[in-house]
């Protein structure tokens, strides 16, 4: 049973803060493009999208027509989405262009949901690395996502459609571990991987602001999981040996967060999701209400407005016991000065919730 079903308070607050009663219904029959779909997080996300009746174009370097997600999907019958796996090198602009041309002519046409999931890591030190490694990490983790995002926004703008862009980031896109932590899991270094993830975080905020100022019905969500049980770490024997004894997230945990954000009302912007595992919990440098350690989703930032999502570059963290909600008297149309922040913390089966809103007066 899911956490939300076990805790009615969670459901009530979720609905109150933007969880649409229709949920994912408005996305049924739409098309999602997911990069890095051959396994791990990408595969889990693709499977969840298909089960929600969303068509999926899955991109990967060596994607087989019958990936595990496709096999499981084909076993069932029902109003599920259609799955089209395509081999694509996302670091090549021409390949990306062709993929969007395919999407334009498939089913209902276009891409309404983009999931920038593909990523590569390198467990070496920057001072011992080379330009080829730097270029590879930048191309896959940053430039490919930027190209796909630009084409998706352009397509949605031309077709005047609602859209949602997801950037599968990392906890390393928020904070770099202190010295000594990496050695505990057999890692000598992370190269420029944290730098690329910080760049992806900045890009998410920048694109979110741009589409907001352009009055486009497009939302941008950045997901930051901790250690996830995927092949990206298993490729390194030394790291994999140590990670066997470290609590890790499951790819489905990330997929759950994505589906939750996708199902919210159009006027609600789910900006950032932090998905923590126990290992990184004691090494965070953020306020406790943001980064409590658990394998559950810990915190999400909600930017709500009656007109359009604001640029979520400033978040109001207001103690509800010291501040109260303020609205413009006699007017239903107001725009927030800051984002609406909703934080859930789960301790021993209890839910403690805090929320804060600051509006222009």
Structural account:
With 361 residues, the protein is α/β, with parallel strands linked by helices. It contains 12 helices and 10 strands. The protein has one domain (25-303): 3-Layer(aba) Sandwich (Rossmann fold), CATH 3.40.50. 35% of the residues lie in helices and 18% in strands. Strands 3-2-1-4-5-6-7-8-9-10 form a 10-stranded mixed sheet, with helices on both faces. The longest helix has 29 residues, at 131-159. The relative contact order is 0.12. One of its GO terms (molecular function) is oxidoreductase activity. Pfam families: adh_short (PF00106). Keywords: Oxidoreductase.
Tags for this entry?
361 residues; alpha/beta; Rossmann fold; ten-stranded mixed sheet; 12 helices; 10 strands; disordered C terminus
């Amino acid at each position: 049973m899911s956490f939300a079903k076990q805790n009615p308070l969670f459901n009530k607050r979720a609905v109150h803060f933007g969880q649409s009663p229709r949920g994912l219904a408005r996305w049924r029959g739409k098309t999602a493009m997911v990069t890095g779909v051959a396994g791990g997080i990408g595969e889990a996300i693709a499977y969840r999208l298909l089960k929600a009746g969303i068509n999926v174009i899955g991109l990967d370097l060596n994607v087989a027509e019958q990936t595990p997600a496709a096999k499981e999907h084909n076993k069932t019958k029902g109003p599920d989405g259609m799955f089209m796996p395509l081999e694509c090198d996302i670091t090549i602009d021409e390949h990306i262009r062709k993929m969007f041309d395919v999407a334009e002519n498939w089913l209902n046409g276009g891409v309404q949901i983009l999931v920038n999931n593909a990523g590569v890591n390198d467990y070496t030190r920057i001072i011992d690395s080379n330009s080829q490694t730097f270029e590879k990490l930048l191309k896959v983790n940053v430039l490919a996502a930027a190209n796909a995002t630009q084409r998706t926004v352009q397509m949605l703008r031309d077709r005047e459609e609602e859209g949602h862009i997801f950037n599968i980031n990392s906890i390393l896109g928020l904070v770099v571990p202190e010295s000594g932590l990496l050695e505990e899991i057999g890692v000598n270094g992370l190269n420029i991987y944290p730098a690329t993830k910080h760049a992806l975080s900045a890009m998410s905020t920048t694109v979110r602001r741009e589409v907001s100022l352009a009055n486009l019905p497009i939302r941008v969500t950045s997901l930051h999981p901790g250690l996830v049980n995927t092949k990206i770490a298993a490729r390194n024997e030394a790291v994999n040996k140590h990670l066997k004894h470290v609590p890790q997230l499951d790819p489905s945990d990330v997929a759950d967060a994505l589906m939750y954000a996708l199902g919210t009302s159009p006027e609600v912007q789910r900006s950032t999701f932090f998905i923590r595992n126990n290992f990184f919990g004691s090494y965070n440098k953020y306020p406790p209400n943001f980064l409590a350690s658990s394998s559950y989703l810990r915190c999400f930032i909600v930017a709500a407005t009656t007109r359009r999502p604001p640029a979520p570059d400033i978040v109001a963290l207001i103690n509800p016991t010291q501040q109260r909600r303020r609205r413009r008297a006699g007017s239903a149309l107001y725009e927030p000065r800051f984002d609406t922040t909703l934080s859930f913390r789960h301790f021993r089966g209890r839910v403690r919730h805090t929320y804060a809103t600051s509006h222009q007066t």
